[in-house]
Amino acid sequence: MKGKDFQDFIEQDLVPRLNPGDVVVMDNLNIHKMEGIEEMITATGARVEYLPPYSPDFNPIEMLWSTVKSVVRMFPTRAMEALEQLIKLALMLMGTNTFKNWFTKCSYCTN
């Protein structure tokens, strides 16, 4: 998405739906910090909160890819077929408890 497209989205689609007290959460993508974006949002009485620059704790997929990459690093290859097999191997090595633990760590589930 280009900056102008994002600006148009904020102005035409998001701002008309915002109410005082609403919170708009954005990451630190450059277009999210373009001049005028935050002002348009706060003019409605809503506020803007930015995510930390890198927040893997909020997203279990980050933990999954970290684990997959650690397995792939053990067997360096440039062949696509071998890489696909390594990714499949990494996923098979992860049991259901691994996934449950990730979701628990991210506070998506507690049991």
TrEMBL record:
The GO molecular function terms of this record are: nucleic acid binding
Residues of the Tc1-like transposase DDE domain: 2-84
The membrane spanning regions, by residue number, are none
Top-rank taxon of the source lineage equals: Bacteria
PANTHER family hit by this protein: TRANSPOSASE (PTHR46564)
Protein name per the record: Transposase
Question: What species is this protein from?
Answer: Limnospira maxima CS-328
